[in-house]
Amino acid sequence: ELEGLQAAVGLNVVRGAAAAGQFAVGGNVAGGALSGGQFSVGANIAGAGGVGGQFTVGANIAGGALKGVQASVGANVAPSMVGLQAATGLNFAKEMRGAQLSLLNVGGDVSGAQVGLVNIASKVEGLQLGLLNVARESQGEALGLLSFIGNGQANVQLWASDVAYTNVALKFGSQHFHTLLTLGFNPGTNTHRRRYVAGFGFGTHIPTGRLFFDLEAIGSSVHTDNLFRDGDGLNVLAQLRLVAGWQVAKRFALIGGVTGNTLVTWDNGDRWEELGIGPEWRSVSDGGNTTVRVWPGVLLGVQL
């Protein structure tokens, strides 16, 4: 056992518990419980967990429950953690009470927050904030570009609108926040050209029994030749949607709503003059190269 200070250029090893501090360039190993701090460039290992902090450039590993802080550039690993795991690479804890901050966070039961590029957990009570969030069950919120939550939202929407008669969207996320991937198509008529609409958006979901409301912001591009290109011009269609839905059955709902549409075209892009069903306001700047059009719209469809 250690009570006091260990310092080395290479490796510090204590077979039993370590109370106080271990400082090394290479690594620190405590076979028993840690009560204090481990500081190294290489790796820190606390065989029986403990109370305190592990700080390194490489990896921190706790063999038992740890209460305190694990901070590293590489990775932090603990079977049970109360406190903070902060790393550039990976945080892993089968049971987490506190926060994980890293590019990749992996947890079993998490009570607190996961903040990183990719967050993965079995059960979450708290927040997941990242580019990709995955959880089998969440009693909190997942905010990110893509969130796949077992007890969250996972729906397909089909609707018609003034922008495109045929639209489909994938809607997925947590219980109150979701992401939308949308595609729209208009076959073309005597007065309207064929058009393709591809978009991406975010929304908030407000359930009130069988009735629910979604407030969503979507950005799309509108083209006539294909989904992603249309000559030399550029355009962006920004939509703010308020959608109401009635849950007819478990996997079937009727949806309808209103939209505020803003189409911005530049570099002499297509102005899509035929779009719009109501009053319109138009502003032209940059010598006619940029056009901004705003009009109201409606949508009606189903959610599966």
Helix count from the secondary structure assignment: 0
The CATH architecture of the largest domain comes to: Beta Barrel
Structural class: mainly beta
Which CATH first-tier class of the largest domain would you pick?
Answer: Mainly Beta
- SSE sequence, one letter per element: EEEEEEEEEEEEEEEEEEEEE
Specify Rg, calculated over alpha carbons: 27 Å
CATH topology of the largest domain: Porin
Helix coverage percent of residues? under 10%
| DSSP strand content | over 45%
Biggest sheet descriptor:
12 strands, parallel
Organism: Corallococcus terminator
Protein name: Caspase family protein
InterPro entries: LA_2272-like (IPR058093)
Would you give an account of this structure?
- The protein is mostly beta strands and 304 residues long.
- The chain has two domains: 2-149, no CATH class; 154-303, Beta Barrel (Porin), CATH 2.40.160.
- Helix content is 0%, strand content 74%.
- It contains no helices and 21 strands.
- The protein has strands spanning 2-8, 11-14, 18-24, 27-30, 34-40, 43-46, 50-56, 59-62, 66-72, 75-87, 90-138, 141-149, 153-161, 166-173, 177-186, 195-208, 211-223, 234-249, 252-266, 281-285, 290-303.
- The strands form two sheets. Strands 1, 2, 3, 4, 5, 6, 7, 8, 9, 10, 11 and 12 form a twelve-stranded parallel β-sheet that branches. Strands 13-14-15-16-17-18-19-21 form an eight-stranded antiparallel beta barrel.
- The mean pLDDT is 85.
- InterPro entries: LA_2272-like.
- It comes from Corallococcus terminator.
- This is Caspase family protein.
